[in-house]
Amino acid sequence: MTKKWFRIGMLGIFILSLALRFWGLERFNTLVFDEVYFAKFGNNYLTHTPFFNAHPPLSQYMIGIGIWIGSHIPFWHDTVNGLTGSMRSPWTYRWLNALTGSFIPLVVAAIAYQLSYRRSFAIIAGLFTACDGIFIVESRYALSNIYIVIFGLLGHWFLLLALDNQNRRRSFWLVFAGIAFGASVGTKWNGLWFLSGAYLIWIVAWVIHLMHSFSNPFTSFSLKEAGGRKQEAGGRKQEVEGVSQESEARSYEAGISTYSPSSPSSPSSQTPLQNLTQIYIFQMLFYLGIIPASIYSIIWIPHLQLDKTYGFIEVHRQILKFHLQLGGNSPNVHPYCAAWYKWPLMTRPMAYYYQTAESITEPLPVMGPPLPAGAGKVIYDVHAMGNPFLWWFGVAAMLFLAGMLVAQIVMPWVKEKRFSVPATLSVDTWIALYLVVNYAANLAPWVEVTRCVFIYHYMCAVVFVFLAIAWFVDQCLRSYYQQLRVLGVTITFIILAAFIFWMPIYLGLPLSPDGYKMRMWFNSWI
Q1: How many CB atoms lie within 10 A of CB 376?
Q2: How distant, in Å, are the alpha carbons of 341, 394, 443 from that of 447?
Q3: Using alpha carbons only, what angle is made at residue 190 by residues 184 and 192, rounded to the nearest 5 degrees?
């Protein structure tokens, strides 16, 4: 793929993301789901009204900034309400979230490119992310999860850019990575898992490096073997900076890329992850420790100046106390409680808004209970639900990557009866490590959480699922084998078709009762 077509593709993805988030943004002139908290909190900063917040305040600052800017724009004020504490148009407290969410597919694509230097992988990753429902829903309302994700992803992208540079440029990007990670935690505490993923992949890289550096009974490494791998890899370089790799596809042994860099010192033949061991512990502690902690602390200053009820330490105790008192993960606590193991297969999505009307020409219902059963001919439903096939295929791709990593350890054990790590890991092995480690880092901590949690808590982890299925599809499309290329096209078509099919419940479009039931495949989805 040429640079020109890559840029056109990225622009198209961004326009698609913008359109899906801004079209009909004022459709429901009310507070949808947790807008009853976050939109009010954002307005409270503008009216100087003290309040207690059960989360760090950054997302409410952003919503407040959006309200202030939106209130000074002389259009999009056809409908207003006073539900935030002031007379506001729904557009004013939603537009900045919609704009921010539109950039998430681009950031995911940027990460994919930095991981592989493959434009095709980046385009597919961005497209799949743009075609997910829960990210569209969260972007269209004054909620906070969009900010956790985009700041966490920016932290990872900046880290990869830092690894791709040296000296001052590296320090420059590491500073921005620390700021972004601090902002993610400053939105909600679970933003910390993005930072923990960065630390974990850094630790993994150092473990592999040390195993190669010190010869011991658990390591089988020879310079001759390493040189052989490099010579072999030299004949099958992957796409780098727009160079066509059609010949590489015909050198695959199993139709899946296993690219290895031909020269560790050549930036054009390796990816940033292979430079992780160039960052030492003191650099990590400063750039990805002290800087994020400092940013997190600074974020609290405006809120603590507004609400002087609690100091910095005490407000954290109160937040922790609030979450510990939310009760167990049971429908008795909240009908949409969903434990972590229900998220990957999306067995319990949740409705953010549900109303019925007698006809499509009626004014959109905003308050009160739905009409009695049988009376409502039109259903307006906003469902916080991902693209089912994107999530399901993505989980399968993540398991494939995990299996690929395990196989690289088990196979030498079976053949040589001893533990062995290849001297030079392929680019795709590094990608697999990065995705599996970060997915686990964002999902595993929820295993021990006993309070009621919801499917939107999975958003930080599921972005790595999107990258996993994008990687798999890209490998299939670039394969020499026709069957794999057909598989890649089929998966892409199913994901796009599923997105179109479920789009009405992402955008809150009117549906007939039959149309609504057609999209609720399982009772647990309702």
Answers
A1: 18
A2: 8, 20, 7
A3: 60
Residue written as token pair 């390493």: 226
| Structure tokens given for 102 | 């539109």
Kindly tell me the burial class for residue 131, based on how many C-beta atoms sit within 10 Å of its own C-beta (0-12, 13-18, 19 or more). buried
Count of CB atoms situated within 10 Å of the CB of 445: 15
pLDDT(231) > 70: no
Using alpha carbons only, what angle is made at residue 137 by residues 131 and 138, rounded to the nearest 5 degrees? 110
How high is the mean pLDDT of the chain? 87
- The mean pLDDT value for 348-368 works out to 83
Does 232 have pLDDT greater than 50? no
Dump pLDDT digits (tens) for 78-94. Answer: 899 999 999 999 999 99
Q: Which tops the pLDDT comparison, 260 or 127?
A: 127
CB under 8 A, 24+ apart: contacts of 291-297: 291/175, 291/178, 291/179, 291/182, 292/178, 292/179, 292/181, 292/182, 292/185, 292/195, 293/182, 294/182, 295/178, 295/179, 295/182, 295/183, 295/186, 296/56, 296/182, 296/185, 296/186
Residue 353 has pLDDT above 60, yes or no: yes
Number of Cβ within 10 Å of residue 184's Cβ equals 32
> Alpha-carbon distance 403 to 435, whole Å?
13
Residues 6+ apart with CB under 8 A from 192: 184, 185
Comparing CA positions, the residue from 92, 97, 89, 77 lying closest to residue 17 is 97
Task: Work out the angle at residue 237's Cα, subtended by the Cα atoms of residues 231 and 243, and round it to the nearest 5 degrees.
Answer: 145
Whole-angstrom Cα distance, residue 161 to residue 170?
8
Percent of the chain residues past pLDDT 70, beyond the cut: 85
Contact 270, 261 (CB under 8 A): yes
How far apart (Å, rounded) are the C-alpha atoms in residues 181 and 442?
14
Mode of pairing for the β-strands spanning 510-511 and 350-357: unpaired
| pTM of this prediction exceeds 0.90 | no
On whether the CB atoms of residues 272 and 160 are closer than 8 A, the answer is: yes
Q: Could you tell me which residues are beta bridge partners of residue 88?
A: 81
Beta pairing, strands 378-384 & 510-511: antiparallel
Q: How far apart are the first and last CA of the chain?
A: 42
Alpha carbon of 28 to those of 32, 109, 405: distances in Å? 8, 32, 47
Q: Which two tokens stand for residue 47?
A: 């009216």
pLDDT in tens, 37-48: 999 999 999 999
Which carries the bigger pLDDT value, residue 79 or residue 252?
79
228 alpha-carbon distance from chain centroid? 38
Maximum C-alpha span of the chain: 78
CA 343 to the chain's CA centroid = 14
Query: Residue 382 belongs to what H/E stretch?
Result: strand 378-384
